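Fold it.
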Amino acid sequence: MKTYIGSLLIASVFFGYSQAVFEPVPSTASGIDFINTINDTRENNILRYANFYGGAGVGVADFNNDGLLDLYFTGNLVGDELYLNLGNLKFKKITKEAGIINDDTWSSGVAIADVNGDGWQDLYISKELYDNQPEKRRNKLYINQGDLTFKEEAEKWGVDDAERTRQAVFFDYDKDGFVDLFLLNQPPNPGTFSPYFGTELLQPEYTCKLFRNVENKKFIETTSEAGVFRAGFPNSVVASDFNNDGWTDLYVANDFHAPDFLYINNKDGTFSYQTEKQLKHTSFYSMGVDSADIDNDGFLDIMVLDMVAEDNFRLKANMSAMDVERFWKVVAAGGHYQYMFNTFQRNNGNGSFSDIAQYTGMAATDWSWANLIADFNNDGRKDVYVTNGLYRDIRNTDADKKLSNFVYNFSNEYIKNNPNKGDIDIWEILPLEEVLKILPSQPLKNYMYQNRGAYTFENVTIDWNLGQPSFSNGAAYGDLDNDGDLEIVVNNVNQEAFLYENKTVDHTDHNFVRIELKHPDYPNLLGARVELFSQGECQVLETTSIRGIYSASEPFLHFGLERKSKVDSVIVHWPYNEAKVYSQIEVNKKNLIVYESARPRAVKLTINPPVFNSIHTAGISSVKHRENNFDDFEKQVLLPHKLSQLGPALAVADVNGDGLEDFFMGGATGQKAQLMIQGQDGSFKNSNDDLWLKHRILEDTEALFFDADNDGDQDLYVMSGGNEFANRQSPYQDRLYINNGKGDFEYKKELLPALFESGGTVKAADFDRDGDLDLFVGNRITPWDYPTAPSSYILENTHGKFEVHQSSRDLLDNIGMVTDAVWTDFNNDQFLDLILVGEWMPITFIENKNGVFSLDTQHTNAHHLKGWWFCIEQADIDADGDQDLILGNMGMNYKYKASDEAPLELFYHDFNDNGKKDIVITYYNYGIQYPLRGFSCSSNQIPSLKNKIGSYSEFAVKNFNEIYGSNSFEQATHLAVNTFQSLILINDNEKGYTAKPLPAEAQFSSINDMVSQDFDQDGILDLLVVGNFYGSEIETPRNDAGIGLFLKGRGNGDFEAQTPLKSGFFTPFDAKKIQLLSDQKGKRILVANNNEALQFFEYQALP
């Protein structure tokens, strides 16, 4: 191995490391002197072409079959370059003698494959730009002649396309043994002063194109018949098998308002578009894409990059607020839900994905281009490298306004001084250099994230010596020195390309295995999959070369083993539906696996049946919640989320005494509720419809069956909630329906006090031990006055009539935005106490001493936990005889973050003295407190900010106090959250409660409700949780990664999260309530979803 003294000194002096994972190799040592130089001219510049600084790619392959990986760089305004690997990370430029044509065309992407099946790697180069010169946009296909020369034969092969191809990918979509080609064709990419600016760009002529290879002789276009005729703004693509059926699928990352395209291979030469069905949301400005099995579960996950910054200044200065009207227009037009964040789509293994980018900590990496997912330190876990930077910040809001004003004023002045010039082309007079100086230019560090396991990643950019500021675009990896670790090569704008030598093998004792596949009949092995087993763990890799953006990484399979010294076996799934197990795999070397006769590809079957099964029961199909359309943000612009879509209510009981349980599901405003009576055959039918119809204007947010009048049957309490009506209006009056014992109900208004609060939860218990059931009524919000806390109440039952318990009234006055509660005797005095949770609330313990309530002060170790709690459940989780608590929170996969050191805070006050209170939410960025929302949103709420602050950059640089002034906040309502983690509180009796987080999978979304029971009948309590929260404001990705979760109990307070494939439990909607129900056939589970149909499950013990 070489040691480059200059770069090592830089690493140790500036970064403080003596043994970094990577070491930059200078061009003087490597011979790689490529610079993608881009200069703006009047003919071609950033004002004409929005992607003018988009950069170019790099390809890694062994072009002369000498066992060393060579490099190909694409150039935009400079020519492409081919470098031959001489060994020891020394390269020789052989572009001209190799026959590479540099003809002043704009190269973007490089794709590599053996196109003609002769055993030599060929090149396909994507061309774009030049709106008025289509001949300069013709793609090139270089056929390798086997002697380090290439012939350009794109026209001969029928793939000299001229429709602005950004990238291409080779793959065998029909499994005929010949490599096919998919082109990412772009519409014109107009800058502000392009004639295409403002025109409709999603036209049929700009669609991506698919070409089928006909017997290694030519390509024919099959776009339409294959089902991929769809226009977008494609930046990148990855070809992988996402559903483990052995056939290669496609994921296309689209810029702007076009949705990403997820194409699933139908195995008959066609694809199905599955974006809306399988993805809950996507990135908005989708850039690079890569796929890999990040959690070693056997399914390939997908990461897509966007362009949102992680630091407050660039976040606020470079991006104005999202346009609400535009967002919903995109959704309505079929663009799906798109958010300006990176997405990390975890493959759930059942045809669905969950974006967990916020949980991983990789959601914001600034203006990102390429992402490479690979094991860069040989520890058996795949890491993530991200390139970053734009040569000029064309989306800097202040600069954009200044530039427009400059051009406008300059043009007017020119016309004024030259009245007789007639029509003048702006480019004839505009001082381009002066204009470009308006746009900021800031090189940025790229990112490296080390995979720490359990979906957590650590930013190790500086630790691994990769922190050189740059404007980096395409990137690729490969073991360029054949020492067993992966080098990284990066194509930069206006800066020499980076070559990073990986020093893992030198600095650690981590082992590795590299695998090269060969087939005597099929030189193309793209789409082969290899599973490597070692000491009970399995890793999966596929042979696909296109990763990130513009670029092709090595074609070999690289497995890190950490300190494992032996591979138990390897299963190769050859691309042609055959698989074979290999056991003679050597560690710390490249293994050549040559195809032998193999068995047909096996389909993995679940050994045990799932615990849960989704079922369809007669009468259930009509039970669907339909949310009404109400704009909460019209009432309060800076609400963090909607408050009007918190239903539906769900309650279960045997209402007619026939021994069969029935259920009630509430409706949204304008929708009647439904009471479903179970028949002897297990079917359900509606009951009491006329009664529910009378109250359809009310929003049913919670419901409870209980015996209100002590007559032995189940009466019904329904809470009225939501945010549609002004505060303290009659539609917020709760309702009590009295059962006649036969399941017929009558509304009894006089039995409840007149309390017009928007409800959250209702719980029944005999708190005064007088033999009847009393109620706790927890109220959720003060309508149109968030976050003002409503009052909650204890209602005392006096012979079936309920009155406010007066001695607790002051205690519960404005107690908080209550979402849930439990009655429990936490102090063991035989009187039921009360525990409340809610939004912006601490876990609130209320002690009941012989009917007198007071705040408990003995449980401060739990009281300090303030969250956006949605639910609380009690159960003996650790089997020690007392009741533990399980609390559902917002989860750790939301844009908002909170901790003791960096809480999320809210201030509510009339900051501009206009008689209306304003919401200001703050967060901490690198230890400094800033307003969460940007200048546009904030000044919309508080117009006086425009007089105080003159620019977006000024707003971005100021902290919270500098913007609003500390004096104002002394008078404000102040709330804080220090955790969004869903957790368990283990009851230690005299010691109080010990907090323990639920597993990572339970943190991927909010937990709205849960039930505890021994579902698999192993003698240990389990949990079944449901969640999601679709009501976020549109700058925040909705909390939609939840798919329901079976948490199998371990008996010691720990749980194992089981996938839907294993458990059978799958609730991918905005699930609000879950209830158990018994019928003639056994146990059932009901899940009530907001704006979706009710789900029905049966469950059984595993054998």
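The CA atoms of residues 759 and 779 lie 4 Å apart.
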